[in-house]
């Protein structure tokens, strides 16, 4: 009996950690947010303040670097199988590889892929131009 209870408890914990049964963030959510709030986002970038964008409750974190500004919108999963989503502003309107801990850089690893670019780094990274220097990104490990 104790073994069954332990297995059940473990299953519940794993389901909670994986976000099963919860609406998951995806590309459409990010593109919709950027589309509906483009002017505000670009104004925040121009002013180098992100209060208005952050106050919308969709963006979890904003980080700047020499090449752009990252807007991390969230993700799900465990570190060995995670999915992260967001968008970034590229000062030169070029596709960039985004690392969430304040690193944005160009990479030769990016290859054309459908409407965007992808790279197989420590996981699969994909980026796609939205417009006005804004780019969607996702990273799956």
Could you write a compact summary of the structure shown?
The protein is of the alpha+beta class.
Walk me through the topology.
Elements: H1 2-18, H2 27-47, H3 51-55, E1 61-64, E2 68-78, E3 81-90, E4 97-99, E5 103-105, E6 111-113, E7 116-120, E8 124-131, E9 134-140
Antiparallel strand pairs: 1-2, 2-3, 3-9, 4-5, 6-7, 7-8, 8-9
What does this structure look like?
- The protein has 141 residues and is α+β, with helices and mostly antiparallel strands.
- It has one domain (23-140).
- Helix content is 30%, strand content 38%.
- The chain is built from 3 helices and 9 strands; from the N terminus they run H-H-H-E-E-E-E-E-E-E-E-E.
- It has helices at residues 2-18, 27-47, 51-55, and strands at 61-64, 68-78, 81-90, 97-99, 103-105, 111-113, 116-120, 124-131, 134-140.
- A 7-stranded antiparallel beta sheet has the order 1-2-3-9-8-7-6, covered by helices on one side.
- A hairpin with a 3-residue loop joins strand 4 (97-99) and strand 5.
- Residues 5-9 and 11-22 have low confidence and may be disordered.
């Amino acid at each position: 009996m104790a073994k069954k209870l332990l297995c059940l408890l473990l299953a519940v914990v794993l389901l909670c950690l994986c976000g099963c049964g919860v609406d998951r963030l995806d590309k459409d959510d990010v593109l919709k947010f950027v589309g509906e709030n483009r002017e505000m986002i670009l104004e925040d970038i121009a002013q180098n303040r992100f209060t208005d964008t952050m106050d919308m409750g969709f963006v979890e974190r904003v980080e700047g670097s020499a090449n752009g500004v990252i807007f991390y919108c969230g993700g799900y999963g465990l570190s060995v199988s995670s999915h992260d989503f967001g968008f970034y502003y590229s000062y030169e309107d070029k596709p960039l590889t985004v690392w969430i801990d304040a690193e944005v850089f160009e990479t030769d690893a990016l290859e054309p892929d459908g409407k965007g670019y992808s790279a197989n780094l420590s996981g699969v990274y994909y980026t796609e131009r939205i417009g006005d220097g804004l780019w969607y990104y996702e990273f799956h490990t």
